[in-house]
Write a structure and sequence with these properties.
13 helices; five-stranded mixed β-sheet; Glutaredoxin; two-stranded antiparallel ribbon; binds zinc ion; alpha/beta
Length: about 280
Amino acid sequence: MRRVLATLLFLAMAVCAAPAAGDQIPRADLERRAAELSNTLPSQFHVVIEPPFVIVGDQEPAAVAGHAEGTVRWAVERLRRDYFPNDPNGIFTIWLFGSTESYERNTEKFFGQKPISPYGFCLNSRRALVMNITTGGGTLVHEMVHAFMESNFPECPVWFNEGLGSLYEQSQNRDGHIIGLTNWRLAGLQRAITAKQLPPFETLLAMSATEFYDKDKGTNYAQARYLLYYLQEKGLLAGFYRDFHDGVKKDPTGVATLRKALGREDLGAFQREWEAWVLKLTFP
Ligand SMILES: [Zn+2]
């Protein structure tokens, strides 16, 4: 009996530890990139390989290693498990600046621009995630989602990309899976619901990048986030992602897949119920 149990345990562990089946960045490429950075950066920067990323930080080595394990490895394992078998296209370097002063000065120095957010941002053209890590790891996980989405679901519309990134800004582990929690985006969403200012889901899901980002009344990220939060809480998110990913050519906005996941034809009626549900959520 004990041997059977041991074998089962071994098999279970082997399954859990099996590498994801997608495209992986070779370790040698990560080592080459890490060596380049170590050789060229000033000595206060510490370089850590945390596949599929290379991390650079100007805090103490133990602090940089702590972010590498506690945030990056933690999220990579779970994002791979539920969504993203492929590594990002090319090596993204994660820059972790340990003070607001360092973040502002070094963003200018290394990237020739001012930070576009006080928390952190992704510079796709430079394959860089640039973070003011003193503000916490939430923005880092958000940007990691985008790095993976590009190589795993390139047809993904902006609402889903930003909704999933935003969902995991505030997250925790549940049975080995990443689970989004309510966060700071809730209050503004509840105000917009009360003021009847939200667009219908059909409109949100069909938005181009320009419409989503530039014509945002401040609610697009939150509306997308809490739609995905609803799917998560009803146990529908993983299945929705699979069906959307596999059927995106026929349903590029996801609206038909959403109707199917919810079992609802009338998304207007669903939205009224969803809004009432969101109004009862709390944060903190
Ligand atoms: Zn984003």
